[in-house]
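[job 4471] stage=fold_predict status=RUNNING
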Amino acid sequence: LRMPVALGWDNDRGVARIETTAGGALAEDASLQTVVLFSLFTDAPATAAEIAASGLGEQRGWWAAAPSIRGTDRVYGSKLWLLLRGTTRRETLRRAEQYALESLAWLIDTKIARTIEVLADRPLPGWLSLSVTITRPQQLLPPFARLWKLRSNAVL
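[job 4471] inference complete, writing structure tokens
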């Protein structure tokens, strides 16, 4: 699995960044990091009820994930954006885990992963952390394990 552009994550700022080579060209990525970042932090469309419950009032999504462009009905991205105005209660943490698992399910469907575990936590006020561990089908490959911290505009 090779991505034409590599993404990295800045835990201090809670944002993704495009990686470049020493010469300034876009870096490529053959690991799971970039596909996981795209899956988690690209906005998936939500139902009208989900949007109303979030208090955000508008649909979000990535134009390139539209079925007419991708040629598939599979939803791309996650609904983590629905949690931007929420408070970090146990229920919110469980929803973050659910949204993350839903966004990464395609890795299991396509046999890139055997299992996926997600744990959400509140490391600091205003932050949500996601710990993702992906076990690959081949026993010889090490599991992919990363921790992302997301900063929110909400009072968490």
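[job 4471] summary: The chain is about 25% helix and 20% strand.
[job 4471] exit 0
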